[in-house]
Amino acid sequence: MLIRPATDGDADAIWAVMEPIIRAGETYTLPRDMDRDSALAYWLSPEREVFVAEDHAEIVGTYCLQANQKGGGAKFSSQKTTPKSSAPTACKQIKKAAEPTSPIAAT
Predict the structure, then answer these.
(1) Residue 107's pLDDT is what?
(2) pLDDT digit string (tens) for 77-106?
(3) pTM (global) more than 0.85
(4) CA 52/CA 12 separation, integer angstroms
(5) CA 100 – CA 9 distance, rounded (Å)
(6) DSSP-derived secondary structure for 9-43
(7) Would you put residue 28 in left (φ > 0), alpha (ψ -120 to 50) or beta?
(8) How far apart are CA 105 and CA 94, in angstroms?
């Protein structure tokens, strides 16, 4: 399992992971009928750092890091859209990003 930053070329694969989750309406407070472009604009917005989980060159999950609040209360939080098989690897990466010396945590 490889966790790496998402690129523009990952949009179709990210949508393939996100769409069934959005349609189910059980995880995110997003409209179940949200279209692809709106969902990707939400997920890949500039205030988030987005990662993908790859298994044998196939994207099987995605997550992002973002500030919980603005200003002095800014801490990062994560949102995951990953199947169970990629979640442990994603969680390790999120934990590493929370370390004070992490470039992600410092931004």
Answers:
(1) 39
(2) 555 555 555 556 656 665 565 555 444 444
(3) no
(4) 12
(5) 30
(6) GGHHHHHHHHHHHHHHTSSSSS-TT--HHHHHHHH
(7) beta
(8) 10
* Per-residue pLDDT tens over the stretch 28-75: 889 999 999 999 999 999 988 999 999 999 999 998 888 776 666 555
Alpha carbons 100 and 8: distance in angstroms, whole number: 28
Cα 37 from chain centroid (whole Å): 16
Do the Cβ atoms of 10 and 59 come closer than 8 Å?
yes
One-character DSSP codes across 70-106: SGGG--EEEEEE--TTTHHHHHHHHHHHTSTT-HHHH
Write down all domains in the chain, each with its CATH number in brackets: 2-106 (3.40.630.30)
**Residue 2, both tokens:** 């490889």
What pLDDT is attached to residue 26? Answer: 87
d(C-alpha 51, C-alpha 42), whole Å: 14
